[in-house]
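Re-run requested by the PI after the first attempt was lost when the workstation crashed. Everything re-entered from the original request form. Ligand of interest: guanosine-5'-triphosphate.
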Amino acid sequence: MKVGIIGLPSVGKTTVLNAISGGSAEVHSYSGKSDAEPNFAVVSVPDSRQDWLSDLYKPKKVSYATVELVDVAGMNPGQAKEGDLSPQMLTSLRQVDALVHVIRVFDDPSVPHPSGSIDALRDAETLELELILADMSVVEKRLSKIDQEIQRKKGTEKSKIEMERDLLVRFNEHLQSEKPLRELELDDEEEKTIKGYTFLSQKPLMLIGNIAESNIGKSEEELLGQLNKWAADRKTPLIAFCGKAEMEIAQLAPDERAEFMEALGITTPSRDKLIRAVYSLLRLLAFFTVGEDEVKAWTITRDTIAQGAAGKIHTDIARGFIRAEVVAYDALREHGNWNAAKDKGQVRLEGKEYKVQDGDCINFRFAV
Ligand SMILES: Nc1nc2c(ncn2[C@@H]2O[C@H](COP(=O)(O)OP(=O)(O)OP(=O)(O)O)[C@@H](O)[C@H]2O)c(=O)[nH]1
Ligand SMILES: [Mg+2]
């Protein structure tokens, strides 16, 4: 899963990336100057259930689920409208599953703000508009040529493109009224039709308020004010943390972190906050494969069936799927180990269509 960190210039995107990924993940540069190249980091998803499973199996290898973060260069207001977003930036953005918009809430005279003042709500709206404008230019470009193409086609091909045109006209109206595409409800057919466009304003979005060190521990209500309401009205998740302080903490040795967090009044590290928010935003859940070789967490979307989950591991397992032996993490923990849970009838045999639940420990039976 890939998450794109976006925002206006110098709002703390790279700082936030460093805070979330810690000193250990690879970060290309941290200059405080505008980054032309995107920065990447891979973060493992902390999960106490997996820690318990690892204690039980003492496997040779423990593989946590991971989230890939990419921090792109700052977007200047008006860039999208001018068609000024660099191709590299657009490519980076189009590949992600979700967008995290870092909004500057901290005030620091030594770090100039591109608009000259701190206004979190204005910045949230500005960037939303950039996404909308970027999509609008894609839609307009396509619509300007689509009628010619329709004239050249016949039969089902023709009606397919006609459907695409009608959908794009609908999108265009929505975008013209400055609304993001993620607000539109689409059916499966429509989703399929426009999948290739990878519209930016259609991607799930969440907001991070990057607050000042001096405001750690204050209520988000108080700090984020109108932005809170704006986000709530749009059902957009919003979290706050101080990127700078958390970056410094993340770069400490693990045994020193707790003390500094306590001194600063930070209860939940930003990494945990962000990952939890992204999981719920994308409706993700985790299942586990367990054994003496490896205890591994896998990320899937809600409503994934057992065969689909098997396919995450290997296409052969999905193709040769016979059944899944499933025990819920809670039941496994309650009874102490797999065999004890089995004796109590807690290990179920499920078929292809079983909807995998969060925390399921699964052993897939398959034949190739
Ligand atoms: N005081 C304070 N400064 C911060 C905070 N977060 C970031 N900064 C400072 O803001 C400056 C810009 O931070 P970056 O993380 O490089 O910002 P960016 O959004 O990646 O910037 P570009 O890549 O240039 O768009 C740096 O000097 C940071 O130290 C914060 O929470 N408090
Ligand atoms: Mg940066």
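Saved to the shared folder this time. The chain has a mean pLDDT of 90.
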